[in-house]
Amino acid sequence: MSTKKIIIDCDPGYDDAVALLLAAGDPSIEVLAITTVAGNQTIGKVTRNALRIAKLTGMDNVTVAMGASRPLLRGEVVVAANIHGESGLDGTTLPEAEFRVDPRPAAQVIVDTVMREPEKTVTLVPIGPLTNIALAARLEPKIVERVKEIVLMGGGCHIGNIRPMAEFNIENDPEAAHIVFEEKWPITMVGLDLTYQALATAEVKARAAQIGTPVGQFLSDVLEQFSKTYKRSKGFDEPPVHDPCAVAYVIDPTVMRTRKAAIHVEYRGEYTSGMTVVDLRKAAPPECHTQVALELDRDRFWTLVLEATERLAQQYKK
Ligand code: PIR
Ligand code: CA
């Protein structure tokens, strides 16, 4: 099996943490870099969380680079403390880690990594606001041709979460999202239509609790905390665990049904700013470079997450 090389651009965050576990524990994935962006919490907090998760999962040697602290044009980042808490991972336990980040900004690390690796071998997996990815595309336009694909968590075709028609990651930096979607790289949008099928059910949480290792305990705590805050803040009985869905698609694209469709980001609308407008009226033309994920094989998805977590009982060695 050939490994898939990815850069995870994240804002951990409970579900980002699960995405990192899945990437660390799946044998088909090689994590080239973890880059951070302000989103669920401020940049300092999410970067600290990323470093600590990297330590827990044995990814100590993976480059971690800090990225944008605010959107391209909008004022401050709108954090999601109501969901992820003041720390971004409230109620969970992680090992302390030195604040050792790459001296380069995230966008530069993305550019350098994509330009260093052979053409069309690196997949970008953004699971936070798209600020770093937009900056990287402007810093070195050649990366657009050079990446294999982008598989992102964000947007949705029929629903929003932060606004009626806007999803949090897109709404936090709609101008950056617009830049990313208008570049002609292949994009798979794993949005809310898909992630609302990735619910942490009682059964999933029971299976996580049974793993019985430090990483298993962390996953279990994350899912329990996420359940509590999603119930309190949004009234959901079971929380949608968004971000690992994007990683799961990289591991095995057949774990979800996707459909090719033109996608544009609305960044000027009075009520629709941050909306991803997906054209599902008819079959997309062959040159269309975007697709949307629509239907998840839930069992296979959770098996990927749980088995990856189990593997991390041993140390991460790849
Ligand atoms: C999840 C997120 C933000 C706000 C809420 N309410 C829930 C984060 C997740 O980390 C995910 O990447 C995306 N944004 C889902 O909208
Ligand atoms: Ca996220």
Overview of this protein structure:
The chain contains 13 helices and ten strands. With 318 residues, it is α/β, with parallel strands linked by helices. Strands 3-2-1-4-5-6-10-7 form an eight-stranded mixed sheet, sandwiched between helices. Strands 8-9 form a two-stranded antiparallel sheet. The longest helix has 21 residues, at 214-234. It starts with a strand and ends in a 7-residue tail after the last helix. The structure holds 2-(4-amino-phenyl)-5-hydroxymethyl-pyrrolidine-3,4-diol and calcium ion (CA). Calcium ion (CA) binds at residues 10-11, 13, 15-16, 39-40, 127-128, 243.
Please describe the structure with a list of short key phrases separated by commas or semicolons:
globular; single chain; 318 residues; binds 2-(4-amino-phenyl)-5-hydroxymethyl-pyrrolidine-3,4-diol; two-stranded antiparallel sheet; binds calcium ion
In short:
The protein is an alpha/beta fold and 318 residues long.
What secondary-structure arrangement, pairings included, does this model have?
Elements (H helix, E strand, L loop, with lengths): L3 E7 L3 H12 L3 E8 L6 H14 L6 E4 L14 H4 L21 H11 L5 E5 L4 H9 L3 H4 L2 E5 L14 H5 L1 H9 L4 E4 L1 H4 L6 H10 L2 H21 L9 H8 L4 E5 L2 E3 L10 E3 L11 E7 L1 H14 L7
Parallel strand pairs: 1-2, 1-4, 2-3, 4-5, 5-6, 6-10
Antiparallel strand pairs: 7-10, 8-9
Helix pairs in contact: 1-2, 1-11, 1-12, 1-13, 4-5, 5-8, 10-11, 10-13
The structure holds 2-(4-amino-phenyl)-5-hydroxymethyl-pyrrolidine-3,4-diol and calcium ion (CA).
